[in-house]
Amino acid sequence: MHTLTETDSGREISLRPAESVVVELEENATTGFQWTAAASAGCVVVEDSGSLAPSGAAPGAAGARTFQVRAATPGTCDVEFRLGRSWESDRPPARSVRMRFRVE
Fold first, then answer.
1. CB atoms < 10 A from the CB of 48, how many?
2. Within a 10 A sphere around the Cβ of 66, how many other Cβ atoms?
3. Phi, psi (5° rounding) for residue 30?
4. pTM recorded for the entire structure
5. What is the 3-state secondary structure (H, E, C) of the chain?
6. Greatest extent of the chain over all pairs of C-alpha atoms, in Å
7. What is the pLDDT along the chain (104 residues), one digit of tens a residue?
């Protein structure tokens, strides 16, 4: 399975129906900042892994949150991943990553 990261922001990714990719984004949840995903309606399903894989052994170490993006039906969908704090919904995200998925 192919893994995409923040450096892939702005890219268009082609998938076939039922094909999946993983989006892995650096996060330090102890700061309150967490990644969420918002997809335009239609061609892909985005699932949050619900877990954070730490990159170090120290308590509070940063890690990576993973999302699985699965192609559902033919079409083009935009997905925006937003890094923010859930209680600061009135503020713009600290960072955002946008990807366009084309299901053929």
1. 15
2. 19
3. -70, -15
4. 0.88
5. CEEECHHHCCCEEEECCCCEEEEEEEECHHHCCEEEEEECCCCEEEEEEEEEEECCCCCCCCEEEEEEEEECCCEEEEEEEEEECHHHCCCCCCEEEEEEEEEC
6. 44
7. 799 999 999 999 999 999 999 999 999 878 899 999 998 877 888 988 876 776 666 666 778 899 999 999 999 999 999 999 999 989 999 999 999 999 99
